[in-house]
Amino acid sequence: MTTLKQTPLNAAHRAMGAKMVDFGGWDMPVNYGSQIDEHHQVRNDVGMFDVCHMRVVDAKGDGVRAFLRYLLANNADKITVPGKALYSAMLRPEGVVIDDLIIYFMTEQWFRIVVNAGTADKDIAWMKEQAATHAPKLTITSRDDLAMVAIQGPNARAKVWEVLPQTKAATENLVNFQAADCGEYFVARTGYTGEDGFEVMLPKEKVEAFWYALSKVGVKPIGLGARDTLRLEAGMNLYGQDMDETVGPLESGLGWTVDLKSERDFIGKAALLANPPTKKLAGLVLLDRGVLRGHQKVKTAHGAGEITSGTFSPTLEKSIALARIPNEVQIGDTVQVEIRDKLLNAKVVKYPFARNGKGLIS
Amino acid sequence: MSNPSNLKYTASHEWVKTEADGSITIGITQHAQELLGDMVFVEAPAAGRKLKAKEECAVVESVKAAADVYAPVSGEVIAANGDLDSAPEAINSDPYGAWIFKMKPDSAADVAALLDAAAYQAVVDSEAH
Q1: pLDDT at A305
Q2: If one looks up domain B8-122 in CATH, what number appears?
């Protein structure tokens, strides 16, 4: 039996009654009580997530912007205000997705990057390999000394300021997708729920006290179960499900993050231009009774597709999914999903499905 | 919550209650509902369907996962609990009240041979790690 990796909050999760599961080799909380209650807690009030398993990477040195401009499918030149963040895919030359990540522009000598847990090691290896060729003077450092907690929901920022009043002045004017470096605390107005809130990076040895301090002011712990339904309602991709190294960003709903029109060259661009996609990611809402799940087959008038992520939406009280389907299928079309030898009807919809406390699908 | 001693159980986490007329009522155990979490969908077998013991015959789905429910013994389905269509969460709040379907078993001896509460608890304990 392999030993699961633990975050510094492992004991706190157990003390708070979490049901723990193996999540990509990490021993993580899936829920503390009702997963649906946890979901509503974030949409309507505030909750906190242990995201210490995600990896913080600092890229530092002269020319870091130029390097990221070439490394990533989205254009690092879009962020010029200090602290501003950008979501991007990182591609292989073949145009497939190594990972999706967020970069924060701090100074012309420092960009911070946050990558997924399961892909962190290969991401860093790839970044270093590319840097060795294109920007040998840059340093790329995995910040294994940092922990990360996401506090999400309409009341999230107020609760963080209650616990960390010293960060308020520097963070109260942050716009969405912007961070402030407050010494030991790096506070970003980002998240993975479709709600307002912060992601706070801090020294590992301080995270347990921070977690309990948040709990004391009424912030409820939220497990990975609700994290998945929140992100799917918000129409946010999950690496490993909605995209991976077998598909490109254009067939993964990430066309908005890829700039193919400008002169800029980036890794994977030539492959994207040479191979226009025949499929796209679309939202589905199940019209019949049942639950959409990943890998279910989709039948459309224009050919076959497949669900990449599916669940029951607590906000809409319907089953929803992201599915990779032929480009010709239009919003409003009805398709069939194969669930246990039955064909059930689903409607193709524009996603996100819910954000900011409200369902967006009628 | 302990497992009621007046019920029989299967290793696949169904509970079985023998009614006065010899028919049986089937649901899933406290342990099963706790593993699955918040229920959002139940598909029960139609009345009249003939089942073999251990045949997949119903599905319960939580937000997290789908799980099959198996026929505890051979027999014929005589009713399905339609209330669960609109209130599947009753399985979470009252697992031993929220029955899924009823059967007329082929043999009362098959029902008597199912696990008792203590034997079922041993199955649950052996799954814990």
Answers
A1: 98
A2: 2.40.50.100
Label residues A273-283 b or e (16+ Cβ within 10 Å = b).
eeeebebbbbb
Residue A162, amino acid: E
Q: In the numeric block, which tokens belong to residue A172?
A: 């109260």
Instruction: Say how far apart CA B97 and CA A220 lie, in whole Å.
Output: 30
Each domain of chain A, given as residue ranges in start order, spans 278-359
- State whether A35 and B40 contact (CB < 8 Å): no
ipTM of the complex: 0.90
The CATH code of the domain at A278-359 is 2.40.30.110
pLDDT in tens, B68-127: 999 999 999 999 999 999 999 999 999 999 999 999 999 999 999 999 999 999 999 998
Task: Give the separation between CA A277 and CA A258, rounded to whole angstroms.
Answer: 13
Q: Nearest CA to CA, how far is A45 from chain B (Å)?
A: 20
CB contact under 8 A, A35 and B85: no
Cα(A351)–Cα(A349) distance, integer angstroms: 6
Inter-chain contact B63–A225, Cβ cutoff 8 Å? Answer: yes
Q: Is A1 a residue whose pLDDT tops 70?
A: no
Q: Across-strand partners of A27?
A: A22
Question: Which residue reads 């970069």 in tokens?
Answer: A103
Nearest residue, CB atoms, B40 vs list A30, A31, A312: A312
H or E element: which one contains A11? helix A10-15
Kindly report the backbone phi and psi dihedral angles of residue A22, in degrees, each rounded to the nearest multiple of 5, phi listed first. -80, 110
Comparing CB atoms, the residue among A19, A289, A312 nearest residue B63 is: A312
Q: What is the pLDDT of residue A219?
A: 98
Residue A290 Cα, gap to closest chain B Cα (Å): 6
Chain A residues in contact with B62 (beta carbon < 8 A): 35
Using a CB-CB cut-off of 8 Å, the residues of chain A touching B61 are 290-291, 312
Closest B-chain CA to A32:
B37
